[in-house]
Specification:
Strand content: under 5%
Helix content: 55-70%
Number of strands: 4
Oligomer: single chain
Structural class: mainly alpha
Radius of gyration: 23 Å
Length: 375
């Protein structure tokens, strides 16, 4: 009896790498870029103030500030939404980038301060005779840009190296990160550290010898912040679609299985942890010249918790969700702190509880479910 030959094996077709953005996504991205780079400057600088279409300087400052917050929310999504690591200390990295930029802006004041001295006013008030050693690079804009990236990156890398090697995870990691930012806040409150104490840095005059308070400079910072936010969003989309991003999501879902598959989760977690810290540092550096002040309150645990709330409200592991959450919660905060400031913290706590119980996928998840239901 002649046996039939073995059937030919079908070739295994591996799934292709997903696109960074769909056609609709690219269209929305280009529209957002046009709004940031062309429409907003036109409405603020060209359209007269009497027009209903005029974008006020207050609106420019508010939206610019919220876009900085959105960068932090995006960074939180990469570390929490896609890797499963809840950080309650990202406010520290935001403040480190802000202080690095603030030191440069204080040096740019020159002799235009209240005491007309070469030293910043708070140092003259404290009877300091020379700049402390850690202000050595503050006079160079290039060195400042380096410090904006290096300071939060190094602090995050050192902290993450020991934390991840010690296999600290879950609520314990969250508590330690919160303790870290609280300790840093207490340190920066001390006058002898050379960071302005509880008043921090303010009264900025120039950046690159250009007055910082002019409408054109404020709009330039607005556009720069918007472009940075869009660039980080695009970077995040590319990252999570890559092999590196798929490993991060596997670590979030089943870290033990990732280890059994031959991957070392420590290197992946440390890399994304450091990258998210750098993103927050860049956001802090963009925030300071637009808001005009940086002080230790930016390191408060409440600020770090707010970053997590932005990501949770918008929708974790979506990238666009945390941006939406940052805008909605920040706008609500701007309104409530004026109309009913005593209720803001209660509202924030109730919002977080409601989202956790009833909207675990956030606003973006709710919209996705609604659109699927209508199809």
């Amino acid at each position: 009896m002649i046996r039939d030959p073995q059937p030919a094996l079908m070739p295994v077709v591996l799934p292709g790498k997903p696109a960074v953005l769909s056609a609709t996504g690219w269209s929305a991205f280009i529209v957002a870029l046009i709004v940031v780079c062309a429409v907003a400057p036109l409405l603020n600088l060209v359209v007269p103030e009497s027009s209903v279409f005029h974008m006020s300087n207050y609106a420019v400052a508010l939206v610019g500030k919220i876009m900085c917050y959105a960068i932090c929310a995006l960074a939180m999504d990469l570390i929490w939404g896609y890797t499963g690591i809840l950080s309650l200390g990202h406010g520290l990295f935001f403040a480190l980038g802000g202080y690095a930029m603030g030191m440069y802006l204080m040096r740019q004041i020159g002799r235009d301060g209240q005491y007309h001295a070469d030293l910043p006013d708070f140092m003259v008030f404290l009877d300091w005779k020379e700049l402390p050693w850690h202000w050595a690079l503050s006079g160079s804009f290039g060195a400042t840009l380096f410090l904006v990236v290096a300071l939060p990156g190094i602090v995050a890398f050192v902290f993450g190296f020991f934390a991840f090697r010690s296999r600290i995870k879950g609520v314990y990691f969250s508590i330690i990160t919160q303790a870290m930012t609280f300790a840093a806040m207490l340190l920066f409150f001390r006058n002898e550290t050379g960071f302005g104490g509880n008043n921090g840095f303010t009264d900025f005059k120039r950046i690159l010898d250009i007055p910082v308070a002019t409408p054109s400079m404020r709009m330039f910072l607005f556009v720069l912040t918007g472009v940075t936010l869009l660039a980080f969003f695009l970077f995040g989309r590319w990252l999570v679609a890559s092999k590196f991003g798929r490993v991060l999501q596997a670590i979030r879902d089943a870290e033990t299985r990732v280890m059994f598959s031959g991957y070392n989760p420590i290197g992946y977690k440390l890399t994304i942890w450091t990258l998210s810290a750098i993103m927050c540092g860049v956001a802090g550096a963009l925030y300071v010249p637009q808001v005009g002040i940086i002080n230790p309150s930016e390191m408060s645990p409440a600020n770090s918790i707010e970053i997590a709330i932005w990501a949770a409200v918008g929708g974790r592991a979506t990238l666009i969700g945390p941006i939406v959450g940052a805008f909605l919660v920040s706008l609500a905060k701007s309104w409530l702190t004026v109309t009913a400031p005593e209720f803001w913290l209660y509202f924030l706590g109730a919002l977080f509880i409601a989202v956790t119980l009833f909207l675990p996928d956030g606003i973006v998840g709710l919209v996705k479910r609604f659109t699927r239901g209508r199809k």
